[in-house]
Design brief:
single chain; 264 residues; 2 domains; two-stranded antiparallel sheet
């Protein structure tokens, strides 16, 4: 009976020790304790010079652990607790992990997964197909002249968020992209920016983009800051024509890179 209790107790102790090792630091300590115990047992069975070497090895192991822990504490203190720094948890250049926009947030999540593989710069072969998904919505796939909903606030916010992401990842394309990809990306950024500027004419008075930039994180706050939305019949034909010309150029740019047109 006592033997069974002792056996159960020892097994529970082992389980407790395993569960306690939840961080790299805890693992280092456990390994050292196990190795020290093995070396201590062997040392007790040894004598002479062999015993001296084993004792020296035990001290060397302890000093090595102190050295590794000290180095990590200085260079990567978060690694000792098994945590990643915030910039690696969300290591992309876009500072916000989400914007309460299903399509934009979905793209950001995909880009985050790539950052787990590539860290900072993303190769265009992975970046561009993901960013292309920002353009598969009415904001870019439907001309102003054809729009029925006239929800200019949602359209403008989506375009501004897309521009923000394009700007954030410009370094990846400029550093890793081909000549054609670089030219495409800069032209795309320019057209999206001009599109956003032209859409300010869909409101009365025309909205200031600089004032809206700080409100992109919240759709509610963003729309609250907008002036009155103009019904389509009150928008000047020039504004509509310029916005739709931007959309056509954006669509042609994606098509030129083999992704197909974005306009329906």
């Amino acid at each position: 009976m006592n033997e069974e209790k002792n056996s159960t107790g020892k097994e529970a102790d082992r389980v407790g020790i395993i569960r306690a090792v939840e961080t790299p630091l805890g693992f280092f300590v456990l390994v050292v304790l196990v190795v020290e115990a093995i070396l201590g047992y062997i040392t007790s069975l040894s004598s002479g010079a062999e015993r001296t070497y084993l004792i020296a090895g035990m001290f060397a192991l302890i000093f090595a652990l102190v050295g590794v822990v000290s180095f990590l504490a200085y260079k990567r203190p978060e690694a000792l607790s098994g945590k990643r720094p915030r910039n690696e948890q969300w290591s992309g250049p876009v500072k916000e992990p989400a914007f309460a926009d299903r399509q934009v947030d979905g793209v950001l999540q995909e880009l985050q997964q790539f950052h787990g593989q590539y860290q900072q710069l993303l190769p265009p072969r992975d970046l561009l197909p993901t960013i292309r998904k920002l353009f598969t919505r009415n904001t870019f796939a439907e001309k102003i002249a054809d729009c029925i909903s006239e929800d200019w606030g949602t359209r403008l916010r989506a375009a501004l968020l897309s521009e923000k992401i394009l700007q954030a990842y410009s370094q990846s394309v400029s550093k890793l992209g081909s000549t054609k990809e670089k030219a495409f990306y800069e032209a795309l950024r320019g057209e999206v920016h001009t599109y956003c500027q032209n859409m300010t004419g869909l409101f009365r008075p025309p909205v200031s983009l600089a004032a809206l930039d700080q409100l992109l994180h919240s759709n509610k706050d963003f729309k609250k800051q907008l002036p009155a939305i103009l019904p389509k019949q009150e928008i000047s034909e020039d504004i509509i024509a310029r916005c739709d010309a931007n959309l056509e150029k954006i669509s042609d740019l994606w098509s030129s890179l083999g992704f197909g047109k974005t306009l329906e």
